[in-house]
Amino acid sequence: MEVGPRNGAKQTGTKPGSTVIGLCLAEVLSMTGFAAYPVFLAPLRDLWGLSSSEAGLIGGAFFAGYMTAVFFLSAATDRIDARRVHLGCCLLSAASLAGFAALASGLASAVFFQLLGGAGLAGTYMPGLKALTDRVGGPRQSRYISFYTSAFGIGTSLSLLLAGWLGRLLSWPGVFALLAVGPLAAAALVRGTLAPFPPPAPASGKPSLFPRPAVLRLPGVSAFLLRYAAHCWELFGLRSWMVAFLLFGYSLAAAAPPGLAATEAAALINLLGIPASILGNETAMRVGRGRFIPIAMAASGLLSWGAGFSTVLSAGAMLAVLALYYIAVMSESAALTAGLIEATPAHVRGAVMAFYSFAGFGAGFLAPVAFGAVLDAAGGKGAPLAWGLAFGSLGAGCLLSALAAMGRRRPRQKPPS
């Protein structure tokens, strides 16, 4: 039985397939504006006279908004139905896009609306996963989680494609305004698909507004948080700067591959992350997460350097190396999140997800800023060496995590007798 009353929750009567499909589609629609700023990073940097560090700060502000709001929003799902949180934050995401379109005119205003957009994502991504795990259990839950987390990649790709295509027809304010329709459609879908499913009343004590740090002492939780932080540092730094990097690489190659603009190439690369994430989780289920995840992180950390210096190659070869790097990064994603869910008791899952999201998206906030700072310090946006070093900085955390895991597994040598 996949759906039913767990932990005192009410029976919904919703089939598992309908729940999973509905939430995955809603996640995709809620993210139509996710990549809007990265698509327009380079032209807005020039229009507003920003340095690369300032441009990276605007990109990072999205994740700062996420990490600021996630403590309230994710932890709240242990006390109220995650569906309600999701609905309200779809509206917040739409408002942030409309506000950026109408009022953003420089660093401060752009940061403000990016903060709002990140807060909107904080109330849709992990609360959407909580809504799924509240309603769907059983042996297939890990697989359903990988489907849901992979929907994030579909949403990213769709956002890149829409922003790129619309950008050929409209000015950037018009693009941001139209992308606000997506979160509104997601809210309508969740409202129509998911029946209310309130969590159980707490066994004792008054519910806390913030998640309690005691949950970090649960077995395995801290390790998953640190690995997720390293993963998100790499992933969101890469997503924030990918389009700008492709534009630079195309300029060196003197031509883009036929019919493949930078935004379209980035979208296709992001789509490769979907099977990579699902297959990564399937592999981790078979060989063990403790064995698979460090290997995947070592691979992505090493490939970050190859991707960064791939501008010396042809445009096609550069895309191939970048795609391979992205596949390696995404192979860790669902394996980490499903592992955390498996290790966490249901009644504190929202609190654990709050810390997990804070760690990951906190790293996601810092990574684009650090990337831009390395780019500026190493020679600027026109220097291939600077791009190579900036990409290398993305993989540093995953390499350190993999080395630490290998060190823990290494058997101790017996002292000489």
Give an overview of the whole structure.
This protein is 74% helix and 0% strand. The chain is an all-alpha fold and 417 residues long. It has one domain: Growth Hormone, Chain: A (Up-down Bundle). The model is unreliable at 1-13 and 411-417 (pLDDT under 50).
Number of DSSP strand runs: 0
What value does the Rg take, in angstroms?
21 Å
Class by alpha and beta content:
mainly alpha
| CATH class type | Mainly Alpha
Q: Span from first to last CA?
A: 58 Å
Sheet having the most strands: none
Rough outline:
globular
Q: How many discrete domains?
A: 1
Q: Helical region count? A: 16
> What is the architecture at the second tier of CATH?
Up-down Bundle
Low-confidence stretches: 1-13, 411-417
Instruction: Calculate the mean pLDDT score and round it.
Output: 84
Helix content: over 70%
Task: Indicate the CATH topology.
Answer: Growth Hormone, Chain: A
Q: SSE order in H/E notation?
A: HHHHHHHHHHHHHHHH
What percent strand?
under 5%
Q: Could you name the CATH homologous superfamily?
A: MFS general substrate transporter like domains
What would you call the quaternary organization?
single chain
